């Protein structure tokens, strides 16, 4: 994905405010062996790019005054209630150095999971993204989690997820839980009530 930016010479709160009034967003790119560069970007193009999942977990081509650099989106700030991007940060990447980044988890086959299909339960997504380490060339846009065998009361842990080649998970603690099969309390109560009603009916039925 390509991002067009221009070098920004004016600094300060007032200068940034004037940029936003003209439809521009201030930003910065840093990292690597080059000095940090203050940027200005078209707000509307950036706003729509930020809505795309891939924009947050892909190596981007940042073109600054005609020169292209490989970067990652590292941070952005938005207005508390306006549809306005206030600032954006990019980090340069080196093709030969591993990067640490969070990528989204994509859950598939929830509709055929036993917890849903056979037990009228739901899938609880304990994690929605995963922090990984890899070379820039191996960065996946997302990681797939297959729910096809998830049963009620069971969980899917990180150890059971197949990661793409060259990608390793950054784990904080033991084997974390990714998703869990849950039977809602109301469903359990309904089932118990039906079972009790069936037992009472059996007791009241006259002997043959």
Provide a brief overview of the structure.
The chain has two domains: 2-92, Ribosomal Protein L25, Chain P, CATH 2.40.240.10; 99-200, Ribosomal protein L25, C-terminal domain (RNA Polymerase Alpha Subunit, Chain A, domain 2), CATH 2.170.120.20. Helices cover 21% and strands 38% of the residues. It has five helices and 13 strands.
Please characterize this protein's 3D structure.
The protein is of the alpha+beta class and 208 residues long. The protein folds into two domains: 91 residues, Ribosomal Protein L25, Chain P, CATH 2.40.240; 102 residues, Ribosomal protein L25, C-terminal domain (RNA Polymerase Alpha Subunit, Chain A, domain 2, Beta Complex). 21% of the residues lie in helices and 38% in strands. It contains five helices and 13 strands. The protein has a six-stranded mixed beta barrel with strand order 1-3-2-6-5-4. Strand 2 and strand 3 form a beta hairpin. The N and C termini lie far apart (77 Å). About 3% of the residues have low confidence.
Any descriptors?
208 residues; six-stranded mixed β-barrel; Ribosomal Protein L25, Chain P; elongated; 5 helices; 2 domains; RNA Polymerase Alpha Subunit, Chain A, domain 2; alpha+beta
């Amino acid at each position: 994905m390509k991002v067009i930016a221009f070098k920004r010479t004016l600094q300060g709160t007032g200068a940034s405010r004037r940029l936003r009034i003209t439809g521009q967003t201030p930003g910065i790119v840093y990292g690597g062996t080059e000095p940090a560069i203050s940027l200005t970007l078209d707000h509307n193009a950036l706003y729509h790019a930020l809505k795309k999942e891939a924009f947050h977990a892909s190596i981007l081509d940042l073109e600054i005054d005609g020169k292209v650099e490989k970067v990652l989106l590292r941070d952005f700030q938005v207005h508390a209630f306006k549809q306005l991007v206030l600032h954006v940060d990019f980090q340069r990447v080196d093709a030969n150095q591993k990067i640490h980044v969070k990528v989204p988890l994509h859950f598939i086959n929830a509709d055929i999971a036993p917890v849903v299909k056979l037990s009228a339960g739901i899938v609880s997504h304990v994690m929605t993204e995963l922090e990984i380490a890899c070379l820039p060339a191996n960065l996946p846009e997302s990681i797939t989690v297959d729910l096809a065998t998830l049963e009620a009361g069971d969980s899917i842990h990180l150890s059971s997820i197949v990661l793409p080649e060259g990608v390793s998970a950054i784990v904080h603690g033991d084997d974390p839980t990714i998703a869990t099969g849950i039977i809602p309390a109301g469903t359990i109560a309904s089932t118990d009530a039906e079972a009790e009603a069936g037992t009472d009916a059996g007791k009241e039925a006259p002997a043959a």
